[in-house]
Design brief:
The protein is mainly α. It folds into three domains: about 30 residues, no CATH class; about 80 residues, no CATH class; about 60 residues. The chain is built from 13 helices and two strands; from the N terminus they run H-H-H-H-H-H-H-H-H-H-H-E-E-H-H. It has a two-stranded antiparallel sheet with strand order 1-2. A hairpin with a 2-residue loop joins strand 1 and strand 2. Helix 4 packs across helix 7. The protein is globular and about 55 Å long. The mean pLDDT is about 85.
């Protein structure tokens, strides 16, 4: 629709914000799309919980903490929300674990919270969060075949994508996350998968 009917979509006499499939932004049709609309699509990447060398990004982590707490206390200031952590989580470490294991993917943060809330009322415990993470990990492991693991390993090693459909499927299925910073684009494995035995064995080789 965006490629073949781009001219018609441009003619709407109003302000429009189009959300295109992520796969289109990484496809061979991207130059056609840019030509149709006259602008390059803006990609909203994951919040970089870690930098490319693996160190925790404290600024991003702080933003994610606030995003989570704002769901419970939207009317409070940022500092006052932090004081309410014991009302929402058993420890601040549980909140940080939630933020970091999400890899900065907003929908994952909210999905994990919802999964916890289905099991218990706040304050949410570390044990409950770990159970939700294990369920997510097991579901994802059932979807990844040997060839996709090899693609994942190669992408993580090179910190980049090769631009073909196989790699695009890793992004679509949330096996791989893309980040952007001042140095450009880079990718990393979904933190949930980073804790699997198969990935840890590869890292140790």
């Amino acid at each position: 629709m965006f490629v073949d009917r781009g001219e018609q979509l441009k003619r709407l006499n109003c302000h429009v914000l189009y959300t295109i499939p992520l796969s289109l932004a990484f496809s061979n049709d991207l130059p056609i799309l840019i030509n149709r609309f006259g602008v390059r699509p803006s990609v909203l990447t994951r919040v970089p919980t870690h930098n490319i060398s693996g160190q925790i990004n404290d600024v991003s982590l702080g933003k994610l903490r606030q995003m989570v707490l704002a769901r419970a206390y939207p009317e409070l200031s940022a500092s006052d929300r932090l004081a309410q952590i014991p009302q929402v989580f058993d420890t601040p470490a549980t909140l940080d674990r939630l933020c970091l294991v999400s890899g900065g993917h907003m929908r994952s943060v909210l999905r994990y919270i919802y999964g916890c809330l289905r099991k218990q009322s706040p304050p949410l415990s570390s044990a409950t969060l770990e159970q939700v993470i294990r369920d997510e990990r097991n579901d994802m492991l059932a979807l990844i075949d040997t060839d996709e693991w090899q693609l994942l390993f190669r992408a993580v090693k090179n910190r980049t994508l090769q631009g073909d459909n196989d790699y695009n499927s890793l992004l679509r299925n949330l096996f791989l996350y893309e980040y952007r910073d001042d140095r450009g684009r880079w990718v990393d494995i979904n933190p949930v998968l980073a804790e699997t035995e198969v990935y840890q064995q590869w890292r140790g080789t």
